[in-house]
């Protein structure tokens, strides 16, 4: 996915250059490995939760989080810019917002406890939809031609603020739908899949509203 995004929408000197696309895709692969490593510090571990405990909710969350991280990398890498350092700044800005919203939802909704300790599939699907939705919005928020760090931050705040709305909705949803003594295993189609699709739908509607980013090749 990263390679395709770079080949279609990267800077002019990158598009069509297999060597540049390969190099940046390789950097993206290393970046994703680092992200998966950091996910365990947020309560979702590939080895412990997915492989050892065969936790399907954690698997869904981890897949969605990895896909969202790839979208952030792709978003920060498309558009014209003078050097790779601008890509690093854009990706770092989007990733910082991503983990900040994750931390805030964890602090208010204890989502990792529902997934890792209570093994709730509905929570894993719901949280995966949340991560994918904010990944789409934040990634779009840093996409486009580079002008300056100040303008990048300004455009990011202007285009990515609905991610905060999705966070607020998700926080309320977690407090209302997380497992409890009366319903230890909530139905995943209703309390997992539907909220996840709702989050992603909000993100897609917003991306449709924003339209193409500045400098997007036609």
List keywords for this structure.
mainly alpha, globular, about 220 residues, about 75% helix
Structure in words:
The protein has 218 residues and is mainly alpha-helical. It has one domain. 75% of the residues lie in helices and 0% in strands. The protein has helices spanning 2-9, 18-39, 46-52, 56-77, 84-109, 111-117, 121-141, 149-160, 162-177, 188-210. α5 (84-109) runs parallel beside α8 and α9 (162-177) packs antiparallel against α10 (188-210). The protein is globular, with a radius of gyration of 18 Å. The model has no long low-confidence stretch (mean pLDDT 92).
* Terminus-to-terminus distance: 19 Å
Main beta sheet strand tally, sense and closure:
none
Topology, number of strands: 0
Q: Provide the low-confidence segments as ranges.
A: none
Count of domain modules? 1
**Which term fits the overall shape?**
globular
Fraction of helical residues: over 70%
Write the layout of secondary structure elements.
Blueprint: H1 2-9, H2 18-39, H3 46-52, H4 56-77, H5 84-109, H6 111-117, H7 121-141, H8 149-160, H9 162-177, H10 188-210
In a few lines, what is going on in this structure?
The protein contains ten helices and no strands.
């Amino acid at each position: 996915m990263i390679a395709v995004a770079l080949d279609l929408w990267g800077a002019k000197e990158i598009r069509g250059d297999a060597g540049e696309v390969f190099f940046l895709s390789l950097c993206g692969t290393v970046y994703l490995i680092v992200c998966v490593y950091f996910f365990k510090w947020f309560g979702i571990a590939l080895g412990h939760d997915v492989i050892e405990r065969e936790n399907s909710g954690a698997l869904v969350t981890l897949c969605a989080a990895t896909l969202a991280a790839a979208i952030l990398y792709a978003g920060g890498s498309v558009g014209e810019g003078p050097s790779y350092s601008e890509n690093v700044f854009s990706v770092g800005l989007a990733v910082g917002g991503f983990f900040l919203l994750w931390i805030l939802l964890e602090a208010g909704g204890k989502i990792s406890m529902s997934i890792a300790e209570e093994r709730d599939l509905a929570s894993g699907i719901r949280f995966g939809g949340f991560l994918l939705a904010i990944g789409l919005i934040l990634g779009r928020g840093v996409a486009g031609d580079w002008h300056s760090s100040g303008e990048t931050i300004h455009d990011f705040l202007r285009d990515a603020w609905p991610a905060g709305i999705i966070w607020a909705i998700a926080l309320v949803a977690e407090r209302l739908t997380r497992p409890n003594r009366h319903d230890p295993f909530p139905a995943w189609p209703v309390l997992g899949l539907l909220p996840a699709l709702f989050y992603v739908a909000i993100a897609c509607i917003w991306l449709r509203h924003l339209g193409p980013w500045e400098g997007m090749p036609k």
